[in-house]
Amino acid sequence: MKLTVNGQAHEVDVEANMPLLWVLRDELGLTGTKYGCGIAQCGACTVHMNGMAVRSCQLPVAAAQGKITTIEGLSGSDDAATTANLHRVQQAWIEHQVPQCGYCQSGQLMAAASLLSSNPSPSDADIDAAMAGNLCRCGTYTRIRAAIHTAAKAGA
Amino acid sequence: MGTLKKITRRTFLIASTAIAGGVAFGTYQYQKPTPNPLLADGMGDADTVSLNPYLKINQDGVTVITPKAEMGQGVHSMFAMLVAEELDLDWQTIKTEHGPASNAYFNVALMRPMAGFHDYDQSERANSVRAYTEIASKFLGMQITGGSTSAPDGFVKLRSAGASARLTLTLAAAQQWGVAATTLQTENGHVINPENGDKLSYTELAVAAADIAAPARPPLRDPAQWRYLGQSMPRPDIPAKTIGAAQFASDIRLPDMLHATVRMSPRFGAGIQSADTQTAAAMPGIDKIIQLGNEGFAVIANNTWRALQAANAIQVEWEAASYPPDNAGIMQLYEDSFNTAPNGTFEQTGDVDLAFADVNSDEIIAAEYRVPYLAHATMEPMSAVAQVTENRIDLWTGAQSPTGTRDMVAAAAGMSKDQVHIHTTLLGGGFGRRAEADFALQAYQIARQTAGRPVKVSWSREEDMRHDFYRPAAIARLKGLMDNTKPRALDAQIASPSIMLSMSKRAPMPALGPDQLIAEGTAGQPDQIEHIRIRGYAPELAIPIGFWRSVGASFNGFVHESFMDEMAAHKDLDPIAMKLATLGDLSEVGTKVVQKVKEISGWNGRNQANGVGRGFAYTLSFGAHTAQVIDVSMTDRGVKIDKIYCAVDVGTALDPRNIVAQIESGIIYGLSAAISGDLTFKDGEVVQSNFHNNTALRIHQVPPIDVAILENNPSITGVGEPGTPPAIPALANAIFALTGKRLRELPLNRHIDFV
After folding, report:
1. Which chain A residue's Cα is nearest to B460?
2. Secondary structure letter of residue A10 according to DSSP
3. What does residue B682 show for φ and ψ, rounded to 5 degrees?
4. CA of B376, closest CA in chain A: separation in Å?
5. Architecture, CATH, for domain A77-155
6. Are residues B360 and B277 located together in one domain of the fold?
C-alpha cells in the first residue's frame, strides 16, 4: 500500500481496511496523531487529506490516497503562513498557552488549521461549528477560541 | 565533570513548613535525611551531578526534577518556577523531568485533611496540627499527585531545594575565586562576581558544589522579591504539545516492541465462564492471546489495530455479577443502606431532631437528590509499556502514584522495589483515574510472556469506559428548617459506597473507619447553622470506585448547594444574601469569595428581566473557597449557558494564568457531569461505551468564563479540583431561576434539553 504523508512517499504492508490512524502510529511511527475513541466522536485523530480535516480512525488506508498531513508536518504544509517555523495556529496555541494535558491538541490544531484555510476570519459561531467535533476533557475551549482568532489575524 | 555516582551529597533534608520541635518519639526518624534517588545505583548518567533530589546538572544545564504527574495541570511548570525562583535559573532554557518513582518524593500535604479540623479553620492551632501531619506523610512515603495537594506540597520544599543548591553553588564559586560568598550574586544559571564581572555557570560549579554540605532549611526569598512566582510563565511542556512531540505512554516506541490490548470481563468481579480464542488467534499479525487470571484476555500483536480487531473476535461468555444487574437493583441497595447503621456522622451540632419536633411539618423543607456513577474518560485511554527481563521490570506509564504502582508491581513479581523502574510519561488526562495501578500491573503480566520483548498495552475506549474505578453514585436525603435570613437546621443523610474501602481491597491503603469522602462537600462547609447533622451510609457493591476529580465534593457540592438554594427560595431570599448570612463569622476568606463573585457578576438576583436565569453556588473543597454564578437562557434547542463567573481563593497565586486554566477546566469537567455525564448498568455491565453515549461538553457549549483569584487564605491551596463542585449546583440553580424547575437528579439532560 502506497501513501504520501507530510510530503514523503511510504510503502506499507498492511490490510486495505486498516485505519490510517494505526498506519501512522504503529507502522510509520508518527505518534503525534492520537487515538481517542475509534469511532470519529472525539477528533483526537484529526489529520488533513488534501488540506481538509479528516478523522484518521475512520479512514481506511486504502482510501487515504491524497496528500496526508499530520501534526508533525503541519508547520511545513502549504497553508503555513508564518514568520517562524511553526504554522500560525501552533504559534497562537503557544501564545495563548492552550494545551493542558495536550492529548487532544494535535487534533484540535489540525481542525483549526483546516478551518482557517477555508474561512480566514471565522466568527465565534464559525469556530464553535467547526471545532465541535473535537473533544477536550481538560476544557481548553476558551483558549482554543481565542487562539484561533489570533491565528486568523496573523494570516490576514 | 564528575560522575553522578561519585558525588558525595547523597542526602538532602527535605525542608517543610513549621515542624518546630518534632514529637519526642520518631523525631530522629523524621529528621533523618532522605536519600537522593538520583544517586541510587543504576540511576542517571555518569556526566550528571545531582545536588538534591530535585536537580540534575550536566553539560546541557540544569534539569528540574518535577516528581508530580503532569496530566495537564501545569505542575511541572509550577514546580520549575519554585526552584528557579530561588536558584535563579534561566526560564528560556529550563528543562523538567518526572524523575524516578521514589519515596523521597513523598507528598507532604497528603495527610493534612486528617488533622481533624474544618478546612475553613485557619487558626494557628489548626495549622500547627496540620504541620504535624507531615510526619505521618513522610512515613507513608507516598509519591502521589492528587487531592489538589501539589501547591501545598511543593511550595516550601521546592523553593528550599533551589535555595539550598544556590548556596552551595555560590560557596563553590567563592572557594574557586577566593572571595567571600556574600559578595557574589546569581543570575540565569550562573554565579557572578559583580566586582570584576567574573562568571561561572552552574554546570562548571556543580562538581565542587556537590561536596559542600547543603543547608537543610535555607532562608527563602521574601515574596516581594519574586521574579517568577506570581507571574504567568510560559509552560515548558507546551511547545512539544503543539507539534505532536509530547510523549504519552501510548507514544512510547522501543526497539522490537509488541503491541497489545485487553478484553476484560464487563462484569466486575465476574470471570470467564467459557471462551474460544482460536478464531481471534488466527487473525493477521497476532502473536498470541493470553488469559489474565480469570478476568479476561490480552491479545499480543504487531500492530495495535490488529490487536483490537482480534480482541473483539474472542468468543466469550462471562460469569454473572455479584451485584444487581441493572440500575434499579443497584440503587435499591443504596436506598436500603439508609436503614442500616451510618458509616459515620460527619457533622453534629445542636439537636436537629428537637429543632424539627418544635415546628409545624409544613415548615420543614425536604428533598432527595441523586447522582449517577461516572467514568473519568481521560482523552488518552489507559496505556502502559512494560519490559520484563530476569532481574528487572521497566514500566513506561502515566502514573499519578508511581511509588504505589512500583510497590504493587514488585509484589506481584516477587521482586524488590528497586528492581522495578517506573518511567513516568506525560498523562493524557488523569482526573484520579491514573492513580490506579491496574493497567500497569496488567502490562507487567503481559510482558512476562513476551520473552523480554517490550510490549505496549493500549486499551480501547470501550475497555476504558467500561473498566474504570468510577465516581460512585449517591442518594442524598435532606431536611431543613429556615429562620428569617438563613437556615436554622440541616439534616443530611448521604448514601454512597466507601471509596476508601474499595481502595483498601486493591492497594496498600488502609480503610480508616468512617469514610469522610461520602459526605465531604456537604460536611465541612462553613455553615453557621444552629442544628446540623450529616450522616453517611455506605452500601457495599463489587463495582469498583475511586477518586474522581473532587471526589465526594463532586456530588456533595450539588447536594448541599442545590438544597441551600431551595431553602432560600422557600423564604424568597436572595441565595447570595442567605449564603453570606450562613457563613456568618466562620470564614472571612469564604465571605470575601462570595462577595467577589457577587461583584464580578453584577449580581442583583436570580431572575433577570431579559430571560436570563442566574444560579449561584459556593463550595469549600480541598481548602479552596470557590463561588460561582452561572447565567442561562432558553433557546429553541434547549438551555444555553451564556456566562460563568468564578471567584476562588488560593492563598498565594503562583501562576495566575495557569490557575485560571485549572479553574476553567474544573468547571467544564463539572458541567460535563451536570449536563450529560452518565453511567448505567444492564445485565451487570456498564451500558455506556464511548463518547457517543457518554458525552462531555464541547466547545459550542462553553461560554466565556470570568475567573477572579483572591489571596486572603493564610494557607496556599491547590486548584485542580475546587472549580468542579460548585459548577454543578450553580447550573441547576440557574435552571431553577429560568424555568422554576428544581432538578434534583443528574445528569440534567434526563430532564431538560441543552444546546
Report:
1. A37
2. E
3. -150, 135
4. 9
5. Orthogonal Bundle (1.10)
6. no
B696 CB neighbours in chain A (<8 A) are: 135, 137
CB contacts of B688 in chain A (<8 Å) are: none
Q: Report yes or no: B426 at the A interface, CB cutoff 8 Å.
A: yes
Which among A79, A78, A75, A60 is positioned nearest to A3, based on CA atoms? A60
Contact present, B2 and B207 (Cβ < 8 Å): yes
CB of B119 within 8 A of CB of B586? no
3-class secondary structure, B726:
helix
Residue count of chain A? 156
> Would you call the peptide bond into B747 cis, given omega within 30 degrees of 0 as the criterion?
yes
List the Cα angle B150/B499/B76 in 5-degree steps.
Answer: 15
Q: Count CB neighbours of B685 within 10 A.
A: 18
Which residues on B lie below 8 Å from A71 (Cβ)? 243-244
Domain hosting residue B524, numbered range: 327-374+469-750
What is the mean pLDDT of each successive set of 10 residues along chain B, which is 755 residues long?
A: 42 38 42 80 77 93 96 98 98 95 94 91 94 88 95 96 96 97 97 97 96 88 97 97 97 98 98 98 98 97 98 98 97 98 97 96 97 98 97 97 97 97 98 97 98 98 98 98 98 97 86 90 98 98 97 98 98 98 98 98 89 97 98 97 98 98 98 98 98 97 98 97 98 97 98 97
Give chain B positions within 8 Å (CB) of A37: 461, 690-691
Domain count, chain B: 3
Does the domain at A2-73 match CATH 3.30.1330.60? Answer given as: no
Q: Please report, for the domain that includes residue B705, its CATH number.
A: 3.30.365.10
Closest to B685 (Cα-Cα) out of B280, B330, B311: B330
CB contact under 8 A, B378 and A101: yes
What end-to-end distance do the CA atoms of chain A give, in Å?
39
Continuous H helices in B89-232: 124-140, 150-177, 202-210
Tell me which residue of B401, B554, B382 sits closest to B471, measured CA to CA: B554
Interior angle at CA B270, CA B380 and CA B504, nearest 5: 70
3-state DSSP assignment of residue B27: helix
CB neighbourhood size of B359 (10 A): 13
ipTM summary value: 0.97
- Using only the alpha carbons of chain B, give its radius of gyration: 27
> Of the candidates A32, A137, A139, which has its C-beta nearest B244's C-beta?
A32
Closest residue to B429, CB basis, from A19, A75, A103: A103
